[in-house]
Design a protein that fits this description.
Blueprint: E1 2-9, H1 16-24, E2 42-47, E3 51-57, H2 67-79, E4 85-91, H3 101-112, E5 118-123, H4 130-141, E6 148-151, H5 160-169, H6 188-203, E7 213-221, E8 225-234, H7 237-244, H8 249-266, E9 269-278, H9 286-291
Parallel strand pairs: 1-3, 1-4, 4-5, 5-6, 8-9
Antiparallel strand pairs: 2-3, 7-8
Helix pairs in contact: 6-8
């Protein structure tokens, strides 16, 4: 029996959260086609007959612009220090640098400083042919002494089972660290707030997504209904107008989609009340960031 901790790191938008959901077989991290979707450290557990793998999904490593970004970066760095294996994920479609090449160099520098096995995962192989994949493997082989290099597709599931086997092989021998029925250590409130944020990311204009946060204000469980009130926080009045929409149409669309996900997740009928609030420069507000669970301390 093997058990231990694996942290998943990489620059933004390489598919870390999609991979985590695929590995554990359930959606524990929101996914959107925009970078910096993940803000919090997410713990999720995969149990097999031979191993228990405790995964940490971390925010994408990038150059910070706000206090929120700095805390996200600190969370990712801290996750490298207390684990048994590091899984560095890169994106096959941007494998040789591109516009975020500096972020990738920074990630490589960080993983070179750890003293545990580092597995390189090359994601999105479904977008390339085998002859195109081999040069990428060769190029990264000389960048660091990786314990293993595993190409895979998180979206399609190609070779993810082999990646799981490789990660388990590098864990220390030992009994399970969590009961088998445990999937995560995060509360239900967190997942509902993330469901709302995911709908914002998918439904609103380009300038909105990373200017918003979602905070659950009230949670009341009845026999037949879970009543939830949540605030969507934005920087400016113009962003509030976009989120509310004409006659409240956008807010209704966001709320309906998030409520359906919440009902499926909670296994209960849900009333979801959403309110948009303007808080200027909230990404610099340490107290609010702590409330949102972004502060790694």
């Amino acid at each position: 029996m093997r058990s231990g901790f694996v942290t998943i790191v990489g620059r933004p938008n390489v598919g870390k959260s999609t991979l985590l959901n695929r590995l554990v077989g359930q959606k524990v991290a929101i996914v959107a086609p925009k970078p910096q979707t993940t803000r919090n450290r997410i713990l999720a557990i995969k149990n097999t007959p031979e191993a228990q793998i405790v995964f940490f999904d971390t925010p994408g490593i990038h150059k910070p612009r706000y206090e929120m970004d700095r805390l996200m970066l600190e969370s990712a760095i801290q996750s490298l220090r207390r684990v048994d294996v590091v899984l560095l994920v890169i994106d096959m479609t941007h494998a040789f640098g591109g516009p975020r090449g500096d972020d990738e160099k920074h990630v490589l520098k960080l993983v070179k400083e750890v003293d545990v096995p580092v597995i390189l995962g090359i994601n999105k192989i479904d977008t390339r042919t085998k002859p195109e994949i081999l040069p990428v493997i060769d190029a990264y082989r000389v960048k660091h002494d990786f314990a293993e290099i595993v190409p895979f597709s998180a979206l399609e599931g190609d070779n993810v089972d082999r990646l799981e086997e490789v990660l388990a092989r590098y864990l220390p021998e030992g009994e399970r660290l969590y009961p088998e029925e445990t999937l995560t250590d995060l509360p239900e409130r967190f997942f509902v707030s993330e469901m709302v944020r995911e709908k914002i990311l998918r439904l609103t204009r380009h300038e909105i997504p990373h200017s918003t946060a979602v905070l659950v204000d009230a949670w009341e469980e009845g026999e037949e209904l879970v009543r939830i009130e949540a605030s969507i926080i934005v920087d400016r009045d113009s962003q509030k107008a976009i989120l509310v929409g004409r006659g409240g149409s956008m807010l209704k669309k966001i709320g309906t989609a998030a409520r359906m996900d919440a009902e499926h997740f909670l296994g209960s009928k849900v009333f979801l009340g959403l309110h948009v609030k303007v808080r200027g420069a909230w990404r610099e507000n340490k107290r609010l960031l702590t409330e949102l669970g972004i502060d790694p301390h």
